[in-house]
């Protein structure tokens, strides 16, 4: 009802403002209820060489479940998979992984002895450029960071702008295996040295809920402290050596001394003995990564951790992509109820 230019609304005089909005005299106009803001979901993808193919399966299940990914922070192989997802090339990466055989994997490694690593990495760089081209991180449809480590200082570097391919190469430059990568005046190498599962980066880049895929969460070997350990006496060492080659203990005492030590037949290889420099380097890096991962995740745990069962997957078994992807899918499906619950609980007013 209208009376002298005033509209009657709910029994109270309401004046119509110049822009046509109704409001009670002296009372601000009524507003529509605020819509809740969807929680931003971040994904932290850990390092772990060939085990990283499980990241593909994890992302696929999240997409199938309708869970949007707004932020991706990746380290090493996690940076490579995360970059392909952010650039809309995850399908191409999956197809490539499934074509790998032991022979083809070796063909992608350009060994050299003149650099600071065993592998120059140029063949892998060309492979990345084929699909990612000149894509820049800041042009991606979601927030992305590749984690690397600065050579010399040990700084943790978050690569959040610039060329996507170079950022990925720096993040997976395993020391002694790949040459370090120079970006903006800094020599960078594998980010797993400082932050193997970059939950902190995903959270700092704006994620309300952080999911992580930990490639070492199923490892059966867990280092501890041996508080009392020492070398046996010389006689005990010789007796052990004699036992290893099946000789009587008294025979070991008759072996001739060479260079202050008794020459003895070469013992049979022990179970678990080092099998070469590459094996030693990889095992040492794996131990370091596991220790750092546990420490970092204890200090800043994710909202949901996805742990694919990868204990039987070798670090360089890239030819087992199909199996690895499926393990990633299974682990993520197991965690879907908890993921949905965490996202629902994190919804906030706009």
What would the average pLDDT be, to the nearest integer?
81
- N-to-C CA distance: 35 Å
Task: State the shape.
Answer: globular
In what range is the share of β-strand residues?
A: 15-25%
Q: What series of H and E elements makes up the topology?
A: EEEEEEHEHHHEHEEHEEEHEHHEEHEHE
Number of strands: 18
* Low-pLDDT residue intervals, each spanning 5 or more residues: 1-24
> What is the number of helical segments per DSSP (H or I, 4+ residues)?
11
Helical fraction equals 25-40%
**Structural class based on helices, strands and sheet pairing:** alpha/beta
Radius of gyration: 29 Å
The biggest sheet amounts to: 8 strands, mixed
Explain what this protein looks like in three dimensions.
Strands 6, 7, 9, 10, 12, 13, 14 and 17 form an eight-stranded mixed sheet that branches. A four-stranded antiparallel sheet has the order 1-2-3-4, with no helix packed on it. Strands 5-18 form a two-stranded antiparallel sheet. Helix 2 (77-86) packs across helix 3 and helix 5 packs antiparallel against helix 6 (164-171). The protein has helices spanning 54-64, 77-86, 90-98, 102-107, 122-132, 164-171, 199-204, 234-244, 249-252, 277-299, 321-345, and strands spanning 2-3, 6-9, 12-16, 22-24, 36-37, 41-45, 71-75, 117-119, 143-150, 156-159, 176-178, 181-183, 186-190, 209-213, 257-258, 261-262, 304-306, 348-349. 34% of the residues are buried. The chain is globular, with a radius of gyration of 29 Å. A hairpin with a 2-residue loop joins strand 15 and strand 16 (261-262). The longest helix has 25 residues, at 321-345. 35% of the residues lie in helices and 19% in strands. The chain is α/β, with parallel strands linked by helices. The chain is built from eleven helices and 18 strands.
């Amino acid at each position: 009802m209208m009376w002298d230019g005033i509209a009657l609304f709910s029994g109270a005089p309401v004046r119509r403002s110049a822009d046509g909005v109704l409001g009670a005299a002296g009372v601000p106009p009524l507003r529509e209820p605020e819509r809740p803001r969807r929680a931003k979901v971040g994904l932290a993808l850990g390092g772990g060489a060939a085990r990283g193919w499980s990241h593909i399966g994890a992302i696929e299940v999240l997409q199938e479940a309708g869970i949007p990914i707004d932020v991706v922070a990746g380290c090493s192989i996690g940076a490579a998979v995360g970059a392909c997802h952010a650039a809309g090339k995850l399908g191409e990466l999956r197809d490539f992984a499934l074509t790998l055989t032991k022979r083809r994997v070796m063909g992608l490694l350009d060994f050299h002895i003149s650099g600071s690593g065993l592998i120059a990495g140029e063949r892998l760089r060309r492979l990345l450029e084929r699909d990612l081209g000149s894509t820049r991180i800041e042009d991606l449809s979601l927030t992305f960071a590749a984690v690397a480590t600065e050579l010399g200082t040990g700084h943790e570097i978050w690569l959040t702008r610039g060329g996507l391919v170079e950022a990925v190469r720096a993040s997976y430059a395993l020391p002694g295996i790949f040459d370090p990568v120079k970006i903006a005046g800094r020599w960078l190498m594998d980010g797993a040295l400082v932050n193997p599962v970059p939950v902190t980066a995903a959270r700092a880049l704006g994620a309300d809920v952080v999911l992580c895929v930990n490639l070492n969460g199923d490892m059966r070997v867990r280092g501890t402290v041996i508080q009392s350990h020492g070398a046996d006496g010389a006689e005990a060492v010789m007796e052990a050596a004699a036992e290893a080659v099946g000789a009587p203990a008294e025979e070991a005492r008759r072996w001739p001394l060479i260079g202050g030590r008794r020459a003895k037949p070469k013992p049979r290889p022990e179970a678990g003995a080092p099998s070469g420099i590459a094996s030693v380097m990889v095992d040492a890096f794996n131990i370091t990564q596991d220790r750092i991962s546990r420490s970092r995740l204890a200090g800043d745990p994710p909202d949901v951790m996805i742990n694919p069962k990868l204990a039987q997957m070798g670090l360089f078994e890239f030819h087992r992509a199909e199996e690895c992807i499926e393990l990633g899918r299974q682990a993520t499906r197991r965690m879907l109820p908890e993921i949905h619950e965490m996202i629902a609980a994190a919804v906030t007013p706009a």
